[in-house]
């Protein structure tokens, strides 16, 4: 699957309609973002079952603010609408492949259980 631009208006729908969604928050003026883009595109081609979204923080400032983006690029991974990974900074292709593999392998019942435990403790 190729990467796709995601707007604030469709963000929730993309998360709802897809099991796994990776989101690259970027901007045109950002050098590291431009260097990461081909890596992101390359890895996306190997994972038809994963949505690789891109959010232009300049065009979608409300979405960037809602996601608490303070540094770009920032990569987030969602599974079943749950944020399971968030990290600023560009990563290489093997690291991105590893991330996708880890997200696919997550036991989501276990993740939900840990979230519930944390909410009960807090």
UniProtKB/TrEMBL annotation:
Top-level taxon of origin: Bacteria
Gene3D superfamilies: Glutaredoxin
Site location (Contributes to redox potential value): 31-32
Active site: 30 (nucleophile), 33 (nucleophile)
Annotated positions for site Deprotonates C-terminal active site Cys: 24
InterPro entries: Thioredoxin (IPR005746), Thioredoxin-like_sf (IPR036249), Thioredoxin_CS (IPR017937), Thioredoxin_domain (IPR013766)
Keywords linked to the UniProt accession: Disulfide bond, Redox-active center
GO MF annotation, one: protein-disulfide reductase activity
Disulfide partners: 30-33
Leader sequence segment: none
CDD domains associated with the record: TRX_family
Entry keyword Disulfide bond: yes
UniProt-listed PROSITE patterns: THIOREDOXIN_1, THIOREDOXIN_2
Domain spans labelled Thioredoxin: 1-105
Family label: Belongs to the thioredoxin family.
Protein name listed in UniProt: Thioredoxin
């Amino acid at each position: 699957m190729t990467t796709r631009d995601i707007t604030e208006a469709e963000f929730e729908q993309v998360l709802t309609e897809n099991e796994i969604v990776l989101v690259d928050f970027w901007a045109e003026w950002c050098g590291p973002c431009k260097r990461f883009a081909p890596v992101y595109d390359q890895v996306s081609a190997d994972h038809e079952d994963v949505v690789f979204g891109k959010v232009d923080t300049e065009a979608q400032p409300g979405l960037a603010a809602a996601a608490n983006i303070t540094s770009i690029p920032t990569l987030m991974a969602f599974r079943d609408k749950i944020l399971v990974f968030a990290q600023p900074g560009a990563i290489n292709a093997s690291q991105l492949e590893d991330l996708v593999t880890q997200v696919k392998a997550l036991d989501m019942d276990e993740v939900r259980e840990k979230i519930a435990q944390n909410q009960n403790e807090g």
